[in-house]
Amino acid sequence: MVEPSGTGRVEEVVMCRWLAYSGEPLRPAELILDTQHSLVAQSLNSPLGAETVNGDGFGFGWYPTDPSPDAVPGIFHSIEPAWHNENLRDLTNTITSPMFLAHVRAAAGPPIQQTNCHPFRHENWLFMHNGFLEGFHLMQRDLRYAVDPSLYPSIVGTTDSETLFYLALTFGLQDDPIAALGRALRFVEETGEKHGVSAPVQGTYAVADGKTLWAFRYSTSHHSRTLFHSAAIPELREMFPDVERLEVFGEHAKVVVSEPLNDTPGAFITVPESTVAVLDESGYHHEPFLADAEAVLTPA
């Protein structure tokens, strides 16, 4: 339990777990269910999480293998624990997807309901978040009023994460995801300062458009929750030529995770603090993210 500076109110800080995949079409069950420390396993026992159990619902979003130009990703949300849902097992074992996101939730105040489950979707964009906006109850009115009026009706849940997504859309997520999320987070920090909240932003964030995956690690205190991505498959095959499981994955397969899916040394690379990992068909690279005192831009 923590008490936000200057708020006079005690708030629970609870974390979630997530993963995102990009690469050749893959059965999502290979990562969500079948790895040593799969996302479903982490929902029951998360060694690196702030909460050991993440059983307050889950979400799964996926892009079709052969999308039409106007295709939107599929979404499946449930308030059941991930380990208890047979539909999740059926879906992830029967579909294939070149890009998918999955999230298990540990609720931190907002109620357990489907509209509060990640990932969130707008047109062809998906977003999910592991973390919190501290003092959100103080900032909520200001943050939501900053959302573009054309987007505001699309907010259907009560979480800080969904509000952050629509702020980022307001700031131009569809044109420049890195700059837009940066502006949204700086706006949250500026708003928090007005309300006496000293460190309002904590988290890791995933943004996807069906072609590119952006994974961010940032918090105001510069001490964010863990985030990793897999090493390149050709490198892993060279390091571990006898591991048959690697044959499941294509040459371009990449996964970003809250914590590693296995204990294999060198299989997962830490995403540094204040960094965005960009994963696309060419591979992956890191860029600094909010590493300086970038000015806040007011929404148009």
TrEMBL record:
Record bears the keyword Coiled coil: no
Domain Glutamine amidotransferase type-2: 16-300
Stored InterPro entries: EgtC-like (IPR026869), Gamma-glu_amide_hydrolase (IPR052373), GATase_2_dom (IPR017932), Ntn_hydrolases_N (IPR029055)
Stored CDD domains: YafJ (cd01908)
One family name in Pfam for this protein: GATase_4
Keyword Nuclease: no
Keywords per UniProt: Glutamine amidotransferase
Protein name: Class II glutamine amidotransferase
